[in-house]
Amino acid sequence: MQRQSNRILAINPASTSTKIGVFDNDILIMEKMIRHTTEDLSKFSSINDQYLFRKNTILEALDEEGMNVSNLAAVCGRGGLLRPIEGGTYEVNSGMLEDLRVGYSGQHASNLGGIIAFEIADALNIPAFIVDPVVVDELEPLARVSGFSSIKRKSIFHALNQKAVARRCAEKRGRRYEEVNLIVAHMGNGITVGAHHNGRVIDVNNGLHGDGPFSPERAGTVPTGDLVELCFSGHYSHQEIIKKLVRQSGLFAYLGTSDVVKVEQRIVSGDKKAELIYHAMAYQIAREIGAISAVLKGQVDAIILTGGLAYGESLVELISERVSWIADVEIQPGENELQALAEGAARVLNGEERAKVYPF
Ligand SMILES: Nc1ncnc2c1ncn2[C@@H]1O[C@H](COP(=O)(O)OP(=O)(O)O)[C@@H](O)[C@H]1O
Ligand SMILES: CCCC(=O)OP(=O)(O)O
Questions:
Q1: pLDDT per position as a tens digit, 140-155
Q2: 153-168 pLDDT per residue, tens
Q3: 302-340 tens-digit pLDDT
Q4: What is the dihedral of CA 95, 48, 110, 62, to 10 degrees?
Q5: Could you say which EC number(s) this protein's record lists (predicted)?
Q6: Which of 100, 178, 222, 223 is the most exposed, having the fewest neighbouring CB atoms within 10 Å of its CB?
Q7: DSSP state at residue 145
Q8: Which residues, in sequence order, are CB contacts of 271 under 8 Å at separation 6+?
Q9: 249 close to 219: Cβ distance less than 8 angstroms
Q10: What's the rounded Cα separation, in Å, for the pair 195 and 327?
């Protein structure tokens, strides 16, 4: 099908940076990472309060790059901690804006993606979208049962990148995403391993404050009794324990850094503790992939390793040697999120998909 030219601005707000990209449909024209200093962000008491500051830095960056916003056909932001929704491209509406502002399912910089996209698009009278936010929830009923009746398992994961790499993998095999079974391990600051069955992520660990492998920053699954003891030890407030589990666990807690490149350098120079912990992270990722292969009854077309950590050759090797008996292992390093946002918006602008309405 012949596609018309659609200029799309994609916005991905992360904790200390805002990444932006301008695309012609899914072809990248310009990309920029705007870094925010601690001093800049410490002026704001909440993530939501940063919206105007971040929006202005985006408009300034576009101006510096000579990008004329009046040529845009749509703006697409990374969606945040909304109500659980199925995957897809959603037009930003007033209900979504309200949920993003209060942080319906919690606080995360990605909550700003939809808000900033809307503000820029509204002034230009063009649509604003979000694509596959972190709350995409396509879990099977079986996967929701935790074993502790007061707690349900939740789907919070790197849906945007997981679905984009899964689509690409299916396409390479001459199949549609809706026709394949894939295991995708996104390995970034958090790590999530999803079972993609015929285009739906039917099981995945909650990579923010849930379960799964430990990661550069997160604790992942920890022994429950010991965690309860720690919570009631009187040493930590509620906020402190959450921060410890989400931002100060994993590699950071054991090795004092969450920078995987530095950890790899320490291993090469003979640091045995760094080696043990790094190998343990690979071991836990492989164990999660093995567990989720049972969800797919062993019918797995491919295992995809993606995210920033997939640039690390030794990590990829350590995981592959434990899981390559399950299926072919494909490496798609990086987080590909701006590209995935543009692709999601382009599918709607070109009439290949209809924008979904939040909450559906
Ligand atoms: N060349 C590399 N080799 C190994 N790890 C890397 C490399 N580049 C980045 N990383 C790691 O990737 C992580 C960030 O991954 P990314 O997918 O961008 O993050 P997130 O999913 O959290 O947004 C960081 O922990 C960083 O140390
Ligand atoms: C697990 C989804 C939240 C998320 O995006 O985490 P990181 O970017 O910190 O890996």
A1: 999 999 999 999 999 9
A2: 999 999 999 999 999 9
A3: 999 999 999 999 999 999 999 999 999 999 999 889 999
A4: 100
A5: 2.7.2.7
A6: 223
A7: B
A8: none
A9: yes
A10: 13
Q: How far is the CA of 205 from the centre of ligand 1 (A)?
A: 19
Q: Is the CB of 33 under 6 A from ligand 1?
A: no
How high does pLDDT run on average in the chain? 95
Please indicate whether residue 161, judged by its CB atom, sits closer than 6 Å to ligand 2: no
Query: What is the Rg, in whole angstroms, of the alpha carbon atoms belonging to the chain?
Result: 20
ipTM over 0.90: yes
Answer whether 250 contacts ligand 1 (Cβ < 6 A). no
Average pLDDT over residues 122-135: 97
Q: Write down the pLDDT at residue 276.
A: 98
CB neighbour list of residue 312: distance below 8 Å, 6 or more residues apart: 260, 261, 264
Section 188-213 average pLDDT: 96
Q: Which residues contact 115 (CB under 8 A, 6 or more apart)?
A: 48, 51, 77, 97, 100, 101
C-alpha pair distances (Å), 15 with each of 109, 186, 222, 290, 312: 5, 18, 25, 31, 23
Question: How would you label 185-221 residue by residue, b for 16+ Cβ within 10 Å and e otherwise?
Answer: bbbbbbbbbbbbbebbbbbbbbbbebbbbbbbbbbbe
- Examine the pLDDT at 1 and tell me if it is beyond 80: no
Rounded distance between C-alpha atoms, residue 332 and residue 88, angstroms? 21
The helix (run of H) or strand (run of E) holding residue 185 is strand 181-187
